[in-house]
Design goal:
The structure is a homotrimer. With about 350 residues, the first copy, chain A, is of the alpha/beta class. Chain A is built from four helices and 39 strands. Chain A has a domain of about 90 residues: Udp-n-acetylmuramoylalanyl-d-glutamate--2,6- Diaminopimelate Ligase, Chain: A, domain 1 (3-Layer(aba) Sandwich), CATH 3.40.1390. In chain A, helix 1 crosses helix 3. Chains in contact: A-B, A-C, B-C.
Chain lengths: ~350, ~350, ~350
């Protein structure tokens, strides 16, 4: 059960309500009016809890689980204990996410602008937006309604933020236009000057970075991630992206919609990712590349060339996944042979 | 000599006092009551300073050093100049660390809650704890005694912190239970939501992250490192760990006691490291792995499989160190041969 | 045209003025008194704009550009449309940088110490320096003239900062001596304790870190980058360096002048880079290395040995670039052959 110091639960909810919020169907003949009090993993769930099975690795946990209700794929129906109430979904993890969000809605702030925040007289703050202590908001910034601005965050002059956004503690946002329902986690750095300089005989001369960062609706950006503003064109992050912690995105980069970028990835200047590209952790991209729609790139890869839509790639330099698997197998066998010979 | 703008020294201390704080033995017949004023490296130490020799590479520096006192391994006794007073220790670096800590104790804050900090009325702050300017502490947070909370740090609602902790400037801590004598350096992000979402036909839906971060006593966590809270179970960091800067630790990760994690490592969700695992810089781990006790992993490795206790590994994908050395040697020779042929 | 919410333009400027600020020569017979209103990329520039051509990949954009004025290399003279006014430079990007800086000078702060900043009574703040809201400045800190200290930045006790520096929002600086015209971007962590501990039978014992960070004039350091202070000697960053975001620099590292370090690089303790070393993204260095003057290292390399001046290196472990290209080619062909055989 989540720690009540941090998480406030609503409910109980009936199985029927869970079905409604999640889109999962109640198994035929199962109790629609059963009361459910909380969410829990299969291993620790009790008779008042709802759990879920997504990864088939956990099938054995299902068979011994005491969860009162469980969300599972219709094909797993027979693997569940008889006494378990079942909610059937083609995408049990998605259904569970919606159920958990129903039990634990985001807390609505009950106070508005904290008297200890520093808001420029010309800034506009929308209705229901909560500005925490220590926040600094610059001249002419515009923040929408129902936003939460975390403690010690900094919103620079002229920045525009849409509705229902959550800006984490100690985050800084400058030179940016941000959509609605965007979440920026603690310590993100949006809109700093890009890494641009011209080198002459007496050293490096910084090139003014005159673009912005544009972020689409429903995008989330992880803690301590850095996204530089464009040099003259803009840096653009599409809608519905999920960007993890400690990612670096250079100036003039363009991400399409729905991209997933795992922690510690670095994307060099002017590279473009089309929609729904998935990038594993610690991948690096050279600059000025075009990565096609739906490309998937394995962790720690180094991408030095354009990649065609839909492919899977791995390695540094990155090659098609199938080819990389062979490379890795040969390298492994070479190491073993040599070790045997010498041994 | 350390810059007195930043470091306040106590002393002088006698050789006998140095022996007591460090556990190093005074060499037979050497002066117990000699006064020592400061610590210094072998190269620059003078007759009033204490130095140490740990790495045998510096043996020549020992022979020409003018240090009045030196901590060395008993086996190096003969390498020291005759006029040097010697403290003998099986672990000279550890003994030096304790001597240096005696000369330069952590400054005790002389003022308590800064009038410019923002502390919720329901938060509890222990005796002797110093809260710096710009700090924001949320509702029901509990902070122990003799802690130092650095400027502009943010401690979220409900967070529990033990005694004698040092929270760096601009650090943020949320959804966390933290032991005693823990140090969090500047800009750490503890307890942000993990990278969890379910993907449906209309995009990614964020899964509420309902766990916490638990951190054991005596653990230290480097600047700008991010540790996400658990999804339903907790993210757990054991006692006495040393985690460097810019490390990413995903939700539900478990670290045992005494682990060492060098800078820019990324550990994906639900991976478990047993006690005393040592991880080199920029290593990446896939999710859901089990890494055995005392495993050592070389820098830049990519760990994709469980690793048995006590082994040494390297490479991406990681293989046993011995095998990797062969791989690297063959690759190197292949590159050279081909270069010769073409040349 | 840059977004006027964020960027304030001066002008118009004549072609002659552009020639003066940039050092580019006006092409013979071209209009010296033509008025220019703004900078723009070749693709979108109009008759009142000045653009530039640096990368030959954009030659076709030049031929169709409607830019009124363009800075180009003398050799490209013939590629430009007849009606375009040309400024000729051996280094068009550098000349453009100077022109852009003339149109968009750094805004001078019009208010000085914000009433909402927290400055210790013993700190000294130079003339014309702007201290933003939420800034905390410690005892005996000395900050020069004409500096900009961003919102919620923290300057620790005793820190010295020269003239005309820009410290980004939420940056923290401790135990450091910083030159003039230095820029620290948002969230940098300068001067935290290095990763130093001695391991005994009862765990890790932290070694007091008694050095400082010294940063030379004209150096810029990217967002969320971390530079630890020395253990007893200092960590030193030379003049005119450009360090990107999310870089880690360990204790006692020494960087010469003019070094370029791209994002997410990690440099382990005591490693020394001579002047004008260029390091690609995500490179890792072991500790205690010496890297010669002008060495260039490709992205994602792992440097485990000293590197002689002037060389180019790649790979993990890093080898001479030429050798690495052969290695990569052989690996690629091996992967392909094996794939064919199996296929």
């Amino acid at each position: 059960m989540p720690d009540t110091r941090f998480f406030e639960i609503v409910g109980p909810l009936t199985v029927e309500q869970l079905s409604e919020v999640s889109g999962a169907a109640i198994a035929e003949g199962h109790a629609r009016d059963k009361l459910v009090k909380d969410v829990a993993p299969l291993e620790s769930a009790g008779k008042d809890d709802v759990s879920f099975l997504d990864n088939p690795l956990y099938l054995s946990a299902l068979s011994t689980s005491e969860a009162g209700v469980c969300i599972i794929h219709p094909e797993r129906f027979k693997n569940a204990p008889d006494e378990m109430t079942l909610l059937l979904s083609e995408n049990p993890y998605l259904a569970y996410a919606k159920v958990a969000a129903a039990f634990y809605p985001e807390a609505k702030p009950d106070e508005l602008c904290d008297e200890n925040s520093f808001i420029h007289a010309t800034a506009e703050i929308g209705q229901g937006t909560h500005v925490s202590a220590g926040v600094v908001i610059g001249a002419n910034a515009e923040i929408g309604s129902q936003c939460e601005i975390g403690p010690n965050a900094v919103i620079g002059p002229g920045v525009v933020i849409g509705d229902e956004c959550r800006i984490g503690p100690a985050a800084t946002v400058q030179y940016s236009i941000i959509g609605s329902k965007v979440r920026l986690f603690a310590g993100v750095r949006i809109g700093e000057a890009g890494f641009g300089f011209a080198t002459g005989s007496d050293g490096h001369f910084t090139v003014p970075q005159l673009g912005r960062v544009l972020i689409g609706n429903n995008t989330e950006i992880g803690a301590n991630t850095t996204i530089d503003r464009g040099s003259s064109a803009d840096t653009v992050i599409g809608q519905g992206c999920r960007i993890d912690n400690l990612v670096q995105i250079g100036h003039n980069v363009i991400l399409g919609d729905g991209c997933i970028v795992v922690s510690q990835v670095g994307i060099s200047g002017s590279t473009q990712l089309d929609d729904f590209v998935v990038v594993g952790g610690q991948v690096g991209f050279s600059g000025h590349l075009k990565i096609g729609k739906g490309v998937q790139i394995a962790a720690q890869s180094g991408v030095m060339n354009d990649l065609a839509a839909g492919g899977k790639y791995s390695g540094s330099p990155a090659v098609p996944m199938r080819q990389w698997i062979k490379q890795a197998a040969m390298l492994r066998s070479m190491g073993k042979k040599k070790a045997n010979k010498d041994g």
